[in-house]
Structure formats: C-alpha cells, structure tokens
Amino acid sequence: MAGTCRLDRPDRHRDERDRPLRTRRLPVLEAVRRTAPKTGWRAWAPLALAFTLCAALGHLPPDASLRDIKRAGLFRVCVPAVASPWITTDPTRPGFDIEVLRVVAQRMDLGMTPVAVSEMDNGINPRSWGLTRARCDMIAGGLAITGVTRSFLDAGPVWGTAGLVLFSADGAPLEGQDGTVGIYLVGTGTDRLALGRLLRRAGRAAQVFDHPEALADALASGQIEAAIAPPDLEVTTPGIEISDLPAPFEAGGAGPGFWKGDRSFSEEVRRILRRMEAQGTLSTLRQAYGIASPTE
Questions:
Q1: 165-244: which CATH topology?
Q2: Residue range 26-69, pLDDT digits in tens
Q3: pTM value?
Q4: Which of 31, 43, 96, 182 is deepest in the core (most CB within 10 A)?
Q5: Domain covering 65-162+252-289 in this structure, CATH number
C-alpha cells in the first residue's frame, strides 16, 4: 500500500544484530588510492629528510690531524733504516726524503722526527710493517706510489723516480738464463711477493743484498749472473747492460704517504711541496742526490 513503511525489511547496511557492516574496497579503487599522489606535509617529508641529512653531513667537524700535530710541535715520519738515496746513515747527507721533509717542517714551524722501522727494510707485505698512527704521522723513504701503497695510504705527490731495472750481461732477459739473480730493494712499496713470483716463473734463484756496494761486487766477481736494483746502481762491470722489468716493477714515482682521513695535515704538506717545486728547491735536492725528476 502506498505510503506504508515496511518495518520488517532488513537493513542492507547492518547485520542481524544491528551492527554496521564493513565495506569492501574494490581492487581497482584500492589501487587508485595507493597510487594517488600524496598531498600536504606527507608529500614533502622525504625531501625534507634528505635536506636535513645533507645539512648534517655538511657541518661535520674537520679532521684534527693538523691541529694535533701543531699542538705536539712536530710530526714523526716512519722510514726504513737505510734506503739510499732516499734515506742514508750519513748525518751530513741524511737522504733526499729527510732533507725535503726538514724543509717542510721548517716552513710549518715544526720539528720533524724520523722513526726507523726495520720491518720496512725486509718485510714482504707493506701491511705487515706494523705502521700505526701512534707510531708515526706519515711514511717516507723511497715510498713507491703504486696500487699497493694506495690501498692503505693516501700516497703522493710524486717527488722523484723510483723503481727497479735488470742488470745483466748484454741486457739478457730473466727467462732462458741460468744463475742466481741478486736483488737490492730500496725504498718501500715494492710488491715483493709479485717479484718472487716473477723470478720463479723465470726459473731463477734469488739472493737478497742489504747494500748496493755488495751487490755490485757480487756482480763483478761472478757470484751472481744478474741483478735487480734501482737504475742508479753504480755498476762498472764490462758488458753489463740495463733493461726494463715488466709492470709493476718498472721505474715509477716515489713520494710521501699519509694516513687516510688526515686530510688537513696532508693538504698542508702538499701545499708546501707545490711551493718548493715552483721555487726550485725540490729540483736542487734531486740533483744533489742523483734522483730523476718525475717528468723525465
């Protein structure tokens, strides 16, 4: 009948206990809701977080390496006991590296103390030299600027040429020859394990010498058939010629090494070295010690 209300008709939005029914979102509508662009503060929250992190990183305090060294009044340099011409035992000619770093220390109004580390003379792996920040502030002594040294040091700049060459009769190569090869390693950073593998592949026995004069005498007397040493080795034996070794033993750059992270100290030293290079101070010291320029 028109105008009448059917009270017994169930409510489609409530259950039999008169509780509101939960609505089901259609999958399409749910997908639209999830992919709809955010509005208000939620849209800017990720960007605000990124700016906050960048600002925090930009205000990190600088390293205190230079400040701590100035407070101490000196910096310590780990060096091998002997690595001529880079490090010598002659107090009047202490070596190229020592003289360079003395000038650097004077211009910084600081002292400089060499710390002799015997492990640097005979150690095969540079990581086994026992070098720590507590022991020294930088490393020198003919340090070869190679991938080995850069793996654990902030190495450079190059201030001279270091490396190894082969001394042999008529420039004969390592392979296909017999006899013992004498080895004299100066400076640090040479991959001695790789050098040992090179000799084993060539089938050559090796004898290590502590002094270049002893190596040159052994070559002259026939005690050894060939020698691997720096190119400035003084050899007077007739018929001995110099030839290059394969990488990474060919002559390359040598320079100082700093601890990674000591940026303020390393940048100050490098600034002074650039000035010394421009003023000709490094060139004069290279000539005095017979060291080739990195550009030669």
A1: D-Maltodextrin-Binding Protein; domain 2 (3.40.190)
A2: 455 455 455 555 555 555 656 656 656 655 444 445 689 999 99
A3: 0.62
A4: 96
A5: 3.40.190.10
